[in-house]
Design brief:
The complex is a heterodimer of chains A (384) and B (600). Chain A has helices at 31-46, 71-84, 104-113, 127-132, 139-151, 170-182, 200-206, 215-231, 250-256, 289-299, 311-322, 331-338, 342-355, 370-374, 376-381; strands spanning 3-9, 11-12, 24-25, 56-63, 87-97, 117-123, 157-163, 187-192, 235-238, 241-243, 261-264, 269-272, 280-285, 303-309, 329-330, 359-362, 365-368. By secondary structure, chain A is of the alpha/beta class. In chain A, helix 1 crosses helix 10 (289-299) and helix 2 packs parallel to helix 3 (104-113). Classes of the chains: A alpha/beta (384), B alpha+beta (600). The A-B interface holds A 6, 21-22, 191-194, 215-216, 218-219, 222, 239-240, 252, 254-256, 261, 263, 267-271, 282, 284, 307, 313, 316-317, 320-321, 324, 356, 358, 371, 373-378, 380-384 and B 527, 549-560, 562-563, 565-566, 569-570, 572-573, 576, 584.
Chain lengths: 384, 600
């Protein structure tokens, strides 16, 4: 069985105030050294039981801002992945890019290196919103970047949007949706802004320097997004994700279907264990790039924490991850994964959720209703 | 055994934070009872709960050996006292075991509230009071001002007040010398019959009940058959000893001595504070005065949030009762909450402490329902029943009258707060009985008040309007009929029996509105709209709505988020466990006590 590979590039030109990811603002970075470290880690992991003998189904370069790297470095990593594991011929290889950091030459180089899907952090097409979000690009740069990506041969393109930004109105959100759709991506991710611990906005909120929109307003915006993006030809397939038919992000489906992935790079998380039985484990790497590099150089891995996912936790995760998908999961899939019936394990907690119109059972698949979607976390909490 | 002439029994009276515990620690260090390392701050307060709340719930005693400047050896027994109106009786018994008290006043804060109630209690018991002005090292210390205040407000001669800084260890010798010189030795009673006052008792899993006693007459010896004169229980003395504070066994306790007694008694209810121990074979004619069996003033339901914890709650309450003779408990059932218990408490603090101990020491998630006093209901058929749960009030048509308990309160205060305190009493349906000046500036005020009006927040309000200077004491008077009605709270149309209260008709609208508002604040938004109504009979008098939660969904969940996400969901679920499901609505613990939070 194949697996998904995540590659973390932890640098950005500047850190956005809403971002709690492992990213570090920098004007220079040890690209060659870091690339070597990534390859060493991959070579090490490829020979561990969880991954040996398995091919790569998808690769995702995330960050940070992976587009800061030279396409040659990206190419080296992809080549190494192919050499040590083998990449399936129809693999999806995505790279996250900041619209302000690309030109046609770079996009061409990435395409030539093997990347076949680009994801731009557009976030908004409104200047005020972009400024509030601390973005280094403007709306026209996003438009130009999308056109260049198409010209460089990327027929798979995602645009990220953020809504429920303080100061935004429903009309602003609609404008962003229209502007994004006009660029003809095959995929749109629209995220409700959150205030995560570790992000500058979190502190701002705590200190009262900024204020969240009222939850009712946020709910109205979420509804707008859920109605308006599909009207433009994208179907909603996950809580925050929309795609043209057949163009879902396969890499991310790996996470939501609770399947095996390998994350390499500073702070990356990995999960092994989607087969029946055996040990399920999740682990994560040193977050600081310098410590990551030295750990790899010393001992070929940079693992700094791990947890064993027991059967009960694995079942919970399977349910709350799969339920993020509009298609939910088949009862048969649950049985296949765990060798037990869903009803036996979760029947008692699920029944009131069905009765209260939050879950439905449709042709053997369990999924959230529209109301269940809005209340997803309350539903999920029942399964942990 | 020690000669009575060389014994000094004393306690320390102080306002919270005025340095009582630090002074006690210094005295313990100075007399060699504790090394510096042992006296981890505040040795006397043993329970975590007490330390956190900064109050002493249970009294304790320590026996100290001190060689005074006159070259003679003395035994000093320091008897610690609790400090809240709910425990006034325990305080009075501790003071009854002493001949004197140190009154500790913070030189930078001056005389404060808690001090006063206990000083008057100590004066009532005829104790010799030694003023100690503490914290003289502080830059803001005002020794002369404080001395003046002690004389003005309390009416004590403060010219020979001892000046200390317990923190810096200054003046500790002066305190010890003053104890020896000024506090009288225990007076010989001249009787041979054993009479020992129990001023504290607690349950120990290995030995049963341990009682702290002050011997007045006769001599208790190991092996003696003893009788508790109040409860009429028999025991045999198995162990005697002192706390120094380490345990030191002894064979006998003689007149004037303080120590512990283990007599094979199984629950504190059989060895109550205030009772007298005597020799069963040669009993005293009469017990020492002042023994009372405390009656609970406040009743509330105790329910587990999860029905399967009922057994655990029952066991926990039983264990708690081994150690708390004033806690009364009986099984009861609520439509909304299922199986639980109706418990009686001395007051709200006592209730809160019991609640916290059940949750903390026994790990039980608990719902405590709105506290109430006990009413008497006279039915048309002439029956008289006691109702300590508003839900059990008989059908309206069968009620002739509802009678509520009235109490007589004595409030001591400096004259300047008289107006504010009288207004408070009037607002609480009080009837003034008399008003007397004690000296120029002190007033004692007597009011007849409905108990229901004072058990909840009266004490706090009194402290607030008198800036802490008023002290409160009360005794039960009688039951009086009044226009009392049952106020129900409906959640989504259904009456939640655990939320019903009995109120005076004139206050029912105001109370109903305030309750609904508070409940709206306390019940979180959930998947469905929640209607909260207050009603009397079928008539709705107030309504609030908790709007449905429109959205609760995390936008992002990718490879690096899953572990954290699962933990967040677990936390969310843990939070739910502290709520009670009533119909479809999840009601948090605090909402059941909304009554107490009205006006906050």
């Amino acid at each position: 069985m194949s697996f998904s590979l995540y590659v973390h590039i932890p640098w950005c030109q500047s850190k956005c105030p809403y971002c709690d990811f492992n990213s570090h603002a920098a004007s220079s970075w040890p690209e060659a050294q870091y690339t070597r470290a990534l390859i060493s880690e991959l070579e090490y992991r490829a020979n561990t039981p969880s991954y040996s003998g398995r091919r790569i189904r998808t690769i995702f370069f995330g960050g940070g801002t992976p587009s800061l790297f030279d396409p040659k470095s990206i190419g080296e990593i992809i080549d190494a992945a192919n050499r040590v594991c083998g990449i399936e011929h129809d693999a999806e290889i995505t790279l996250e890019a900041n619209p302000g950091t690309v030109d046609l030459a770079k996009l061409g180089g990435l395409r030539a290196a093997g990347v076949n899907r680009i994801s731009f952090g557009a976030q908004s097409f409104n200047a005020a919103t972009l400024k509030f979000l601390g973005r280094i690009h403007c709306a026209d740069e996003t438009r130009a970047a999308a056109r260049m990506a198409h010209r460089a041969g990327f027929d798979r393109l995602n645009l990220d949007l953020i809504f429920a930004v303080p100061g935004q109105t429903v009309a602003d959100v609609l404008f962003d949706v229209e502007s994004a759709a006009a660029l003809e991506p095959d995929h749109i991710s629209a995220y409700n802004l959150t205030f995560e611990e570790g992000a500058a906005f979190f502190t701002d909120l705590k200190r009262g320097r900024i204020k969240q929109l009222a939850t009712d307003e946020q709910a109205a915006m979420y509804q707008t997004v859920r109605e308006e993006i599909p009207r433009r030809g994208y179907s909603m397939y996950e809580i925050s994700n929309y795609a043209a038919p057949g163009h879902e992000a396969r890499h991310n489906l790996t996470y939501w279907r609770a399947r095996t992935y390998l994350g390499i790079g500073a702070g990356a998380h990995s999960y092994a264990g989607d087969g029946r039985g055996g040990q399920r484990k999740r682990w994560w790497n040193e977050k600081l790039p310098a410590r990551y590099i030295s750990a790899i150089e010393e001992r070929a891995n940079a693992e700094t924490g791990a947890e064993t996912i027991d059967e009960a936790a694995a079942q919970s995760e399977f349910v709350f991850l799969n339920l993020r998908l509009r298609e939910g999961f088949a009862l048969a899939d649950f049985h296949e994964r765990f060798g037990r019936n869903f009803e036996c394990i979760f029947g008692i907690v699920a029944t009131p959720l069905f009765n209260n119109g939050l879950l439905t059972l449709d042709r053997g698949r369990i999924k959230l209703t529209d109301r269940g979607l809005e209340m997803a976390d309350s539903v999920f909490a029942e399964f942990v | 055994m020690t000669e009575a002439a060389s014994i000094r029994n004393f306690s320390i009276i102080a306002h919270i934070d005025h340095g009582k515990s630090t002074l006690a620690d210094r005295i313990l260090e100075r007399t060699g009872a504790l090394t510096m390392r042992e006296s981890k701050d505040q040795f006397l307060d043993s329970m975590d709960l007490e330390r956190e709340r900064g109050i002493t719930i249970k009294a304790r005693s320590v026996r100290l050996n001190y060689t005074a400047k006159d070259g003679k050896g003395y035994v000093l027994n320091l008897i610690d006292t609790p400090g809240h109106v709910d425990f006034a009786y325990e305080v009075s018994r501790s003071l009854a075991a002493c001949e004197g008290a140190l009154l500790v006043v913070d030189a930078s804060q001056g005389v404060e509230a808690q001090t006063l109630a206990n000083v008057y209690l100590a004066l009532d018991h005829g104790l010799e009071i030694i003023p100690v002005i503490n914290k003289i090292d502080l830059p803001s210390a005002d020794v002369e001002g404080t001395r003046h205040q002690i004389e003005e407000i309390i009416g004590l001669d403060a010219s020979e007040a001892v000046l200390t800084s317990a923190k810096e260890g200054v003046g500790i010798d002066d305190v010890l010398e003053a104890i020896v010189a000024r506090i009288p030795a225990p007076k010989p009673t001249g009787e041979d019959a054993v009479r020992a006052l129990i001023f504290d008792s607690w349950y120990d899993v290995y030995e049963g009940v341990i009682g702290l006693v002050r011997v007045f007459g006769g001599e208790i010896r190991v092996g003696m058959k003893v009788r508790l004169m109040g409860t009429d229980k028999l025991g045999e003395v198995m162990r005697l000893g002192h706390f120094t504070p380490h345990e030191r066994p002894t064979d006998a306790l003689g007149p004037g001595e303080v120590g512990f007694v283990v007599a094979g008694i199984k629950t504190v209810a059989d060895m109550r504070v205030g009772d007298t121990i005597t020799d069963a074979d040669n009993p005293a004619v009469a017990p020492l005065p002042g023994f009372k069996t405390l009656k609970p003033m406040v009743f509330a339901g105790l329910y587990p949030t999860e029905a399967n914890q009922y057994g655990a709650l029952r066991d926990a309450i039983e264990k708690l009762r081994l150690n708390d003779a004033s806690l009364i408990c009986e099984p009861e059932t609520s439509q909304a909450l299922g199986f639980g218990f109706r418990a009686g408490f001395l007051g709200l603090l006592h209730m809160e402490i019991a609640q916290e101990r059940l949750e903390r020491e026994f790990g039980i998630n608990l719902i405590v329902t709105a506290p109430t006093v006990a009413y008497q209901v006279r039915t048309v058929s002439g029956e008289l029943t006691t109702v300590d749960n508003p839900a059990h009030l008989p059908d309206e048509n069968t009620i002739e009258a509802i009678e509520e308990p009235f109490i007589l309160t004595s409030i001591h205060m400096p004259e300047e707060y008289l107006g504010a305190v009288m207004k408070l009493c009037e607002d609480r349906r009080g009837l003034q009985r008399d008003l007397r000046f004690l000296g120029e500036k002190r007033v004692i005020l007597h009011y007849e008040l409905p108990l229901a009006e004072i058990v909840f927040d009266f004490y706090d309000r009194l402290k607030s309007v008198s800036r802490g200077y008023a002290s409160l004491d009360y005794e039960f008077l009688d039951f009086r009929a009044g226009p009392l009605v049952k106020l129900d709270i409906r959640i989504n149309g259904e009456v939640v029996d655990a939320l019903s209260i009995i109120v005076h008709r004139d206050k029912s609208y105001e109370r109903g509105r305030a309750l609904c508002e508070k409940m709206r604040e306390l019940i979180p938004r959930q998947m469905f709209e929640v209607a909260i109504q207050a009603g009397i009979g079928s008539k709705i008098i107030a309504r609030e709505t908790v709007k449905a939660l429109r959205k609760n969904v995390t936008a992002k969940c990718y490879g690096g988020d899953i572990t954290r996400k699962r933990k967040l969901l677990e936390k969310q679920k843990e939070g739910k466990k502290r709520m009670k499901q009533v119909g479809r609505v999840e009601i948090p613990q605090e909402a059941f006590l909304a009554l107490l939070k009205v006006g906050e």
